[in-house]
Write a structure and sequence with these properties.
InterPro entries: Flavoprotein-like_sf, FMN_Rdtase-like_dom, NAD(P)H-dep_FMN_reductase. It comes from Candidatus Avipropionibacterium avicola. The relative contact order is 0.18. The chain has a five-stranded parallel sheet, with helices on both faces. The two termini are 23 Å apart. The chain contains five helices and five strands; from the N terminus they run βαβαβαβαβα. It is globular, with a radius of gyration of 14 Å. By secondary structure, the chain is α/β, with parallel strands linked by helices. It has helices spanning 16-27, 50-61, 78-84, 106-122, 141-149, and strands at 4-8, 34-37, 64-70, 96-103, 126-134.
Length: 150
């Protein structure tokens, strides 16, 4: 059985970015993915703690992850980078990683996906689906997901 974990790198828990990621996870076949809202862990990310350790273990034990981020300055959030830096090189080698990026412009969507894929590749994750969308297409999420998944 597949276990899917959604990791939202948005500093605001319950963000549109997290909602898009959850929706993609469901379309990929996960009825109830586990959700990690990094915005809820900001006080522990640099120093560790039970909640961060539990989030790391959830990722390690998953068969696939959906990593979602808004685009900040054409890349993924620092919050997400801090979390991903907690994993060793090639540690996520048995994991398929899907990427979600939400940005104001199409150019930022592309660069955010590229930057995130590079880091996930360094961690050994196998590439999955990439879902990038501009904020003006959030209302068309169903159509966008259908286009991406074919």
């Amino acid at each position: 059985m597949s276990s899917t974990v959604v990791v939202s790198g948005n500093p605001r828990p319950g963000s549109r970015t997290a909602q898009v990621a959850q929706r993609l996870a469901q379309e990929l076949g996960s009825d109830e993915p586990s959700i990690i809202e990094l915005g809820e862990l900001t006080d522990e990310l640099f120093v560790g703690g039970e909640r961060v350790s539990a989030a790391e273990e959830s990722v390690r034990n998953a068969t696939e992850i959906v990593v979602a981020t808004p685009s900040y300055k054409g890349s993924f959030t620092g919050l997400l980078k801090v979390f991903l830096d907690r994993f060793a090189t090639a540690e996520l080698g048995d994991l398929r990683a899907h990427v979600v990026a939400v940005a104001a412009s199409g150019a930022h969507v592309a660069s955010t996906i590229e930057h995130l894929r590079l880091v996930l590749g360094e961690l050994g994750a196998r590439p999955g689906t990439s879902l990038g969308l501009t904020e003006d297409r959030l209302a068309d999420l169903d159509r966008v997901i259908t286009e991406v998944l074919g």
